[in-house]
Amino acid sequence: MSISSFYPPQRILMGPGPTEVHPKVLQALSRPVIGHLDPTFIDMMDEVRVLLQYAFQTENACTMAVSAPGSAGMEACFVNLIEPGDKVVVCINGVFGNRMAENVVRSGGQLVRVEDDWGKPVSPDKLEEALRTHPDAKIVAFVHAETSTGVLSDAKKLCSLARQYNCLSIVDAVTSLGGVPLYVDDWGIDAIYSGTQKCLSSVPGISPVSFSDAAVARITGRKTPVQSWFLDQSLVMSYWGGKQKRSYHHTAPVNALYALHESLVNLQDEGLNQAWQRHAEQHQALRLGLEKLGISYIVDESCRLPQLNAVAIPEGVDDETVRARLLNHYNLEIGSGLGAFTGKVWRIGLMGYAARTENVALCLRALEETLN
Prior knowledge:
The chain is α/β, with parallel strands linked by helices. It has helices spanning 23-29, 39-56, 70-81, 95-106, 124-133, 155-164, 184-187, 213-220, 233-240, 254-270, 272-292, 319-330, 357-371, and strands at residues 12-13, 62-66, 87-92, 110-115, 139-143, 145-146, 151-152, 168-172, 191-193, 207-211, 308-312, 332-333, 335-336, 345-349. It has 13 helices and 14 strands.
Protein backbone atom coordinates (compact mmCIF):
# COMPACT_ATOMS: atom_id res chain seq x y z
CA MET A 1 0.00 0.00 0.00
CA SER A 2 1.26 3.47 -0.91
CA ILE A 3 -0.11 6.47 0.95
CA SER A 4 0.16 9.88 -0.71
CA SER A 5 0.54 13.30 0.90
CA PHE A 6 -2.59 14.64 2.55
CA TYR A 7 -4.20 17.78 1.11
CA PRO A 8 -7.34 18.85 2.99
CA PRO A 9 -10.23 20.56 1.22
CA GLN A 10 -10.66 24.31 1.62
CA ARG A 11 -13.57 24.65 4.05
CA ILE A 12 -15.41 27.66 5.39
CA LEU A 13 -15.50 26.90 9.08
CA MET A 14 -18.57 28.38 10.79
CA GLY A 15 -18.99 25.82 13.52
CA PRO A 16 -18.00 25.92 17.21
CA GLY A 17 -14.30 25.58 16.38
CA PRO A 18 -11.76 25.29 15.04
CA THR A 19 -12.45 28.38 13.02
CA GLU A 20 -10.86 29.74 9.86
CA VAL A 21 -7.21 30.63 10.33
CA HIS A 22 -6.05 34.00 9.08
CA PRO A 23 -3.76 33.68 6.00
CA LYS A 24 -0.96 35.54 7.80
CA VAL A 25 -1.16 33.00 10.61
CA LEU A 26 -0.90 30.10 8.16
CA GLN A 27 2.16 31.76 6.64
CA ALA A 28 3.72 32.11 10.08
CA LEU A 29 3.46 28.33 10.55
CA SER A 30 5.82 27.76 7.63
CA ARG A 31 8.68 29.86 9.03
CA PRO A 32 11.95 28.09 9.86
CA VAL A 33 12.07 26.01 13.02
CA ILE A 34 14.54 27.23 15.63
CA GLY A 35 15.42 25.84 19.04
CA HIS A 36 12.92 26.46 21.82
CA LEU A 37 15.73 27.85 24.00
CA ASP A 38 17.18 29.97 21.20
CA PRO A 39 17.52 33.58 22.44
CA THR A 40 15.43 34.80 19.50
CA PHE A 41 12.64 32.36 20.35
CA ILE A 42 12.76 33.39 24.00
CA ASP A 43 12.36 37.02 22.92
CA MET A 44 9.30 35.98 20.92
CA MET A 45 7.89 34.18 23.99
CA ASP A 46 8.22 37.44 25.92
CA GLU A 47 6.24 39.17 23.17
CA VAL A 48 3.57 36.45 23.31
CA ARG A 49 3.18 37.13 27.02
CA VAL A 50 2.77 40.87 26.45
CA LEU A 51 0.26 40.27 23.66
CA LEU A 52 -1.70 37.81 25.81
CA GLN A 53 -1.76 40.33 28.64
CA TYR A 54 -3.35 42.75 26.19
CA ALA A 55 -5.89 40.18 24.99
CA PHE A 56 -6.81 39.23 28.56
CA GLN A 57 -6.58 42.86 29.76
CA THR A 58 -4.31 41.94 32.63
CA GLU A 59 -0.95 42.78 34.12
CA ASN A 60 -0.55 39.28 35.60
CA ALA A 61 3.11 38.29 35.37
CA CYS A 62 2.03 34.64 35.22
CA THR A 63 0.46 34.83 31.77
CA MET A 64 1.59 32.24 29.25
CA ALA A 65 0.59 29.67 26.66
CA VAL A 66 0.18 26.04 27.70
CA SER A 67 1.61 23.71 25.05
CA ALA A 68 -1.67 21.85 24.60
CA PRO A 69 -5.32 22.65 23.71
CA GLY A 70 -7.87 24.48 25.84
CA SER A 71 -8.85 21.32 27.74
CA ALA A 72 -5.28 21.20 29.08
CA GLY A 73 -5.55 24.87 30.03
CA MET A 74 -8.64 23.94 32.01
CA GLU A 75 -6.84 21.10 33.73
CA ALA A 76 -3.82 23.29 34.46
CA CYS A 77 -6.02 25.73 36.39
CA PHE A 78 -7.75 23.02 38.42
CA VAL A 79 -4.82 20.74 39.28
CA ASN A 80 -2.67 23.68 40.36
CA LEU A 81 -5.23 25.42 42.54
CA ILE A 82 -7.02 22.44 44.12
CA GLU A 83 -5.50 20.36 46.88
CA PRO A 84 -7.16 17.15 48.11
CA GLY A 85 -10.20 17.98 50.21
CA ASP A 86 -10.64 21.54 48.97
CA LYS A 87 -14.28 22.47 48.44
CA VAL A 88 -14.96 23.89 44.97
CA VAL A 89 -18.21 25.41 43.72
CA VAL A 90 -18.74 24.77 40.00
CA CYS A 91 -21.49 26.58 38.10
CA ILE A 92 -22.88 24.32 35.37
CA ASN A 93 -25.07 25.43 32.47
CA GLY A 94 -23.72 23.25 29.66
CA VAL A 95 -21.17 20.69 28.56
CA PHE A 96 -18.07 22.58 29.64
CA GLY A 97 -19.31 23.32 33.15
CA ASN A 98 -19.65 19.57 33.54
CA ARG A 99 -16.05 19.16 32.40
CA MET A 100 -14.99 21.60 35.10
CA ALA A 101 -16.83 19.47 37.65
CA GLU A 102 -15.02 16.37 36.42
CA ASN A 103 -11.68 18.15 36.93
CA VAL A 104 -12.60 18.92 40.53
CA VAL A 105 -13.35 15.27 41.25
CA ARG A 106 -10.16 14.04 39.57
CA SER A 107 -8.12 16.62 41.52
CA GLY A 108 -9.41 15.25 44.82
CA GLY A 109 -11.62 18.24 45.59
CA GLN A 110 -15.08 18.29 47.15
CA LEU A 111 -17.51 19.27 44.40
CA VAL A 112 -20.44 21.59 44.97
CA ARG A 113 -22.65 21.80 41.87
CA VAL A 114 -24.69 24.92 41.06
CA GLU A 115 -26.84 24.09 38.05
CA ASP A 116 -28.82 26.19 35.59
CA ASP A 117 -30.81 25.07 32.57
CA TRP A 118 -28.97 24.71 29.29
CA GLY A 119 -29.52 27.89 27.30
CA LYS A 120 -29.56 30.05 30.45
CA PRO A 121 -26.69 32.03 32.01
CA VAL A 122 -25.20 31.14 35.38
CA SER A 123 -27.41 32.53 38.14
CA PRO A 124 -25.55 34.82 40.58
CA ASP A 125 -28.32 34.24 43.13
CA LYS A 126 -27.82 30.46 43.03
CA LEU A 127 -24.07 30.92 43.36
CA GLU A 128 -24.45 33.18 46.38
CA GLU A 129 -26.83 30.72 48.01
CA ALA A 130 -24.25 27.96 47.53
CA LEU A 131 -21.48 30.13 48.98
CA ARG A 132 -23.60 30.92 52.04
CA THR A 133 -24.34 27.21 52.48
CA HIS A 134 -20.66 26.29 52.07
CA PRO A 135 -18.62 29.00 53.83
CA ASP A 136 -15.54 26.76 53.68
CA ALA A 137 -15.46 26.79 49.87
CA LYS A 138 -12.11 27.87 48.42
CA ILE A 139 -12.77 28.18 44.67
CA VAL A 140 -15.60 29.22 42.37
CA ALA A 141 -15.46 28.00 38.75
CA PHE A 142 -17.69 28.83 35.79
CA VAL A 143 -17.76 29.13 32.00
CA HIS A 144 -17.84 32.69 30.71
CA ALA A 145 -19.01 31.76 27.19
CA GLU A 146 -20.63 28.31 27.09
CA THR A 147 -19.78 26.89 23.67
CA SER A 148 -22.39 24.14 23.87
CA THR A 149 -25.32 26.57 24.22
CA GLY A 150 -24.18 30.01 23.01
CA VAL A 151 -24.74 31.64 26.40
CA LEU A 152 -22.72 34.48 27.95
CA SER A 153 -22.66 34.66 31.75
CA ASP A 154 -21.88 37.73 33.88
CA ALA A 155 -18.26 37.04 34.77
CA LYS A 156 -17.81 40.35 36.57
CA LYS A 157 -20.69 39.64 38.95
CA LEU A 158 -19.73 36.02 39.53
CA CYS A 159 -16.10 36.89 40.30
CA SER A 160 -17.25 39.64 42.66
CA LEU A 161 -19.27 37.06 44.60
CA ALA A 162 -16.27 34.73 44.72
CA ARG A 163 -14.12 37.48 46.24
CA GLN A 164 -16.89 38.46 48.66
CA TYR A 165 -16.85 34.93 50.06
CA ASN A 166 -13.02 34.63 50.06
CA CYS A 167 -12.82 32.27 47.10
CA LEU A 168 -10.48 32.25 44.14
CA SER A 169 -12.17 32.17 40.72
CA ILE A 170 -11.45 29.92 37.73
CA VAL A 171 -12.94 31.10 34.43
CA ASP A 172 -13.32 29.29 31.11
CA ALA A 173 -12.76 31.87 28.35
CA VAL A 174 -12.16 29.43 25.50
CA THR A 175 -14.85 30.98 23.31
CA SER A 176 -14.91 34.50 24.78
CA LEU A 177 -11.28 35.64 24.43
CA GLY A 178 -11.10 38.12 21.55
CA GLY A 179 -14.83 37.89 20.79
CA VAL A 180 -16.59 39.73 23.62
CA PRO A 181 -15.47 42.14 26.36
CA LEU A 182 -13.24 40.42 28.90
CA TYR A 183 -11.32 42.27 31.63
CA VAL A 184 -9.30 39.91 33.81
CA ASP A 185 -7.91 42.52 36.20
CA ASP A 186 -10.96 44.78 36.45
CA TRP A 187 -13.23 41.78 37.09
CA GLY A 188 -10.86 40.18 39.59
CA ILE A 189 -10.42 36.87 37.77
CA ASP A 190 -7.81 34.68 39.49
CA ALA A 191 -7.27 31.92 36.92
CA ILE A 192 -8.40 31.93 33.33
CA TYR A 193 -7.81 29.73 30.31
CA SER A 194 -8.69 29.93 26.64
CA GLY A 195 -7.90 28.33 23.30
CA THR A 196 -6.24 29.53 20.12
CA GLN A 197 -8.68 27.96 17.65
CA LYS A 198 -11.68 30.20 18.20
CA CYS A 199 -11.78 34.02 18.24
CA LEU A 200 -7.99 34.30 18.04
CA SER A 201 -8.13 32.58 14.61
CA SER A 202 -5.02 30.52 15.13
CA VAL A 203 -4.40 26.79 14.85
CA PRO A 204 -5.64 24.39 17.54
CA GLY A 205 -3.26 23.05 20.14
CA ILE A 206 -2.31 25.98 22.42
CA SER A 207 -4.09 27.25 25.54
CA PRO A 208 -3.46 30.81 26.78
CA VAL A 209 -3.71 31.02 30.57
CA SER A 210 -3.27 33.71 33.20
CA PHE A 211 -2.98 33.53 37.01
CA SER A 212 -3.39 36.39 39.48
CA ASP A 213 -0.88 37.00 42.26
CA ALA A 214 -3.32 35.37 44.69
CA ALA A 215 -3.54 32.29 42.48
CA VAL A 216 0.25 32.10 42.19
CA ALA A 217 0.53 32.34 45.98
CA ARG A 218 -1.89 29.42 46.27
CA ILE A 219 0.22 27.38 43.83
CA THR A 220 3.58 28.14 45.47
CA GLY A 221 2.13 27.56 48.96
CA ARG A 222 0.72 24.10 48.25
CA LYS A 223 1.19 21.41 50.88
CA THR A 224 0.94 18.62 48.30
CA PRO A 225 2.56 18.35 44.87
CA VAL A 226 0.49 19.07 41.78
CA GLN A 227 -0.78 15.74 40.47
CA SER A 228 0.34 16.53 36.90
CA TRP A 229 4.05 17.04 36.32
CA PHE A 230 3.58 18.51 32.83
CA LEU A 231 0.92 21.02 33.93
CA ASP A 232 2.58 22.00 37.22
CA GLN A 233 2.74 25.75 36.83
CA SER A 234 5.44 26.13 39.48
CA LEU A 235 7.69 24.31 36.99
CA VAL A 236 6.36 25.92 33.82
CA MET A 237 6.68 29.43 35.27
CA SER A 238 10.44 29.02 35.31
CA TYR A 239 10.29 28.28 31.57
CA TRP A 240 8.06 31.24 30.70
CA GLY A 241 9.37 33.50 33.44
CA GLY A 242 10.34 37.08 32.79
CA LYS A 243 13.74 38.14 31.53
CA GLN A 244 15.71 35.75 33.73
CA LYS A 245 17.42 32.70 32.31
CA ARG A 246 14.88 30.11 31.26
CA SER A 247 15.09 26.57 32.64
CA TYR A 248 14.25 23.66 30.40
CA HIS A 249 10.80 22.18 31.01
CA HIS A 250 9.58 20.74 27.71
CA THR A 251 10.10 21.26 24.00
CA ALA A 252 7.65 24.00 23.08
CA PRO A 253 5.58 23.69 19.88
CA VAL A 254 7.73 26.24 18.10
CA ASN A 255 5.71 26.81 14.92
CA ALA A 256 2.37 26.75 16.72
CA LEU A 257 3.68 29.56 18.92
CA TYR A 258 4.73 31.48 15.80
CA ALA A 259 1.09 31.16 14.72
CA LEU A 260 -0.22 32.35 18.09
CA HIS A 261 2.17 35.31 18.03
CA GLU A 262 0.92 36.29 14.55
CA SER A 263 -2.74 35.95 15.55
CA LEU A 264 -2.16 38.15 18.60
CA VAL A 265 -0.37 40.74 16.45
CA ASN A 266 -3.48 40.75 14.23
CA LEU A 267 -5.65 41.34 17.30
CA GLN A 268 -3.36 44.12 18.49
CA ASP A 269 -3.42 45.80 15.07
CA GLU A 270 -7.20 45.60 14.79
CA GLY A 271 -7.71 46.64 18.40
CA LEU A 272 -9.69 44.79 21.05
CA ASN A 273 -12.68 47.12 20.96
CA GLN A 274 -12.81 46.94 17.18
CA ALA A 275 -12.65 43.12 17.27
CA TRP A 276 -15.48 42.96 19.80
CA GLN A 277 -17.51 45.36 17.67
CA ARG A 278 -16.89 43.36 14.48
CA HIS A 279 -18.18 40.20 16.12
CA ALA A 280 -21.27 42.03 17.34
CA GLU A 281 -22.01 43.54 13.93
CA GLN A 282 -21.64 40.26 12.05
CA HIS A 283 -23.86 38.57 14.62
CA GLN A 284 -26.60 41.13 14.04
CA ALA A 285 -26.41 40.60 10.28
CA LEU A 286 -26.66 36.83 10.77
CA ARG A 287 -29.53 37.20 13.24
CA LEU A 288 -31.60 39.32 10.84
CA GLY A 289 -31.05 36.83 8.02
CA LEU A 290 -31.92 33.82 10.14
CA GLU A 291 -35.10 35.45 11.37
CA LYS A 292 -36.18 35.97 7.75
CA LEU A 293 -35.70 32.24 7.23
CA GLY A 294 -37.87 31.50 10.25
CA ILE A 295 -34.93 30.23 12.30
CA SER A 296 -35.01 31.29 15.95
CA TYR A 297 -32.37 31.48 18.68
CA ILE A 298 -32.57 29.28 21.76
CA VAL A 299 -30.87 31.92 23.92
CA ASP A 300 -32.40 35.17 25.14
CA GLU A 301 -30.94 38.25 23.46
CA SER A 302 -29.68 39.61 26.80
CA CYS A 303 -27.17 36.76 27.22
CA ARG A 304 -26.56 35.69 23.64
CA LEU A 305 -23.03 35.10 22.35
CA PRO A 306 -22.33 36.96 19.10
CA GLN A 307 -19.57 34.55 18.11
CA LEU A 308 -21.48 31.30 18.78
CA ASN A 309 -25.07 31.37 17.54
CA ALA A 310 -27.20 28.51 18.90
CA VAL A 311 -30.42 28.24 16.89
CA ALA A 312 -33.34 25.80 16.88
CA ILE A 313 -33.52 23.42 13.93
CA PRO A 314 -36.87 24.04 12.18
CA GLU A 315 -39.62 21.48 12.69
CA GLY A 316 -39.39 18.57 10.28
CA VAL A 317 -35.82 19.32 9.21
CA ASP A 318 -33.18 16.61 9.60
CA ASP A 319 -30.03 17.92 11.25
CA GLU A 320 -27.47 15.63 9.62
CA THR A 321 -28.95 15.92 6.12
CA VAL A 322 -28.73 19.72 6.15
CA ARG A 323 -25.21 19.87 7.59
CA ALA A 324 -23.99 17.26 5.12
CA ARG A 325 -25.42 19.23 2.19
CA LEU A 326 -23.84 22.45 3.44
CA LEU A 327 -20.49 20.69 3.67
CA ASN A 328 -20.68 18.85 0.34
CA HIS A 329 -22.27 21.56 -1.82
CA TYR A 330 -20.96 24.77 -0.23
CA ASN A 331 -17.80 23.63 1.64
CA LEU A 332 -19.47 25.20 4.67
CA GLU A 333 -19.29 23.67 8.13
CA ILE A 334 -21.73 24.52 10.92
CA GLY A 335 -21.93 22.69 14.23
CA SER A 336 -24.45 20.27 15.64
CA GLY A 337 -25.93 20.36 19.11
CA LEU A 338 -24.32 18.57 22.06
CA GLY A 339 -25.89 16.51 24.82
CA ALA A 340 -29.57 17.30 25.29
CA PHE A 341 -29.42 19.60 22.23
CA THR A 342 -28.29 16.87 19.81
CA GLY A 343 -30.51 16.94 16.72
CA LYS A 344 -32.35 20.00 18.02
CA VAL A 345 -29.83 22.82 17.65
CA TRP A 346 -27.32 24.16 15.14
CA ARG A 347 -24.30 26.09 16.41
CA ILE A 348 -23.15 28.69 13.89
CA GLY A 349 -19.76 30.20 14.66
CA LEU A 350 -18.67 33.73 13.84
CA MET A 351 -15.27 33.58 15.43
CA GLY A 352 -12.19 35.59 14.59
CA TYR A 353 -11.36 35.62 10.89
CA ALA A 354 -14.64 33.82 10.13
CA ALA A 355 -16.65 36.82 11.35
CA ARG A 356 -16.79 38.44 7.90
CA THR A 357 -19.61 39.79 5.75
CA GLU A 358 -19.02 37.29 2.93
CA ASN A 359 -19.24 34.35 5.32
CA VAL A 360 -22.53 35.55 6.78
CA ALA A 361 -23.95 36.06 3.28
CA LEU A 362 -22.85 32.58 2.15
CA CYS A 363 -24.23 30.91 5.27
CA LEU A 364 -27.63 32.54 4.86
CA ARG A 365 -27.85 31.74 1.15
CA ALA A 366 -26.73 28.15 1.65
CA LEU A 367 -29.24 27.60 4.43
CA GLU A 368 -32.06 29.13 2.42
CA GLU A 369 -31.33 27.05 -0.66
CA THR A 370 -30.87 23.87 1.33
CA LEU A 371 -34.04 24.30 3.40
CA ASN A 372 -36.04 25.10 0.25
